[in-house]
Amino acid sequence: MSIPHYKQLHQLLKQQILTGTFQEGALLPSENELCATHHITRATVRQALDELVKEKLIYKHRGKGSVVSPRRKSLGLLSFKGFSEVVGASHTPVNTEILHKPTIQPWPEDFFYPLSEREIEVGCIYLERLRFADNHPVMLEYTYIPTIDLSGFLEYNLGKDSLFETLHVHYNLDIINVEQDIRAIVADKNTTDQLGLMTGAPVLHIYRRYGTNRTDFYIYSSLYCNTTHYALSNSFDS
């Protein structure tokens, strides 16, 4: 079965945009030029361009034509490095709002990773943070840390200081790996309100278990990521 003409043109233009033949801000050939070059109708050309608009690869500028959209910046939020380190390295301004200060409490029932008897016995330090990149809310993070040899931890200002840096400097505790479970979900009202999204908007939900340089000491996080302004990239280098 042959590929429809509009789809062929759509795929060709998409490839040219993604490979840099047409750079950000560049004008695509006019509808008339595309009709003449590819021997197709104006309706077919417009259907192909509409597909590119839906994919946010181009936008229509009245009086000019079809313009290649700026590419979204990407953040290495899939790295096991800390948010401040990863996002700050991209020269993007970052800040953190503490929604729930660190407190000692029992682990939630039906926790998202299996817990050892020792972890269950000691309870956890729980905190909630909203993370911003260039003043855009990009991550809602719920963190759980076993209450083992972390004397004085509740006194540190994690709105100002990095969690991982605090653990490294004051407790000689370093992150060495991460296990992640990533899926797209429809966010609930609290999540969308915090991330500045419409109710029911899709977000990425990530469960994480960080391995550390202490034997059998893990840090756990449940993250909700807003990818409206930034794409997520893989950055697993240490």
From TrEMBL:
One of its GO terms (biological process) is negative regulation of DNA-templated transcription. The keyword RNA-binding does not apply. Keywords: DNA-binding, Transcription, Transcription regulation. Coiled coil: none annotated. It holds the Pfam family GntR. Residues 3-71 form the HTH gntR-type domain. SUPFAM superfamilies: Chorismate lyase-like, Winged helix' DNA-binding domain. GO terms for molecular function: DNA binding; DNA-binding transcription factor activity. Transmembrane segments: none annotated. It comes from the Bacteria. The keyword DNA-binding applies. This is GntR family transcriptional regulator. It comes from Xanthocytophaga agilis. The lineage of its organism: Bacteria, Pseudomonadati, Bacteroidota, Cytophagia, Cytophagales.
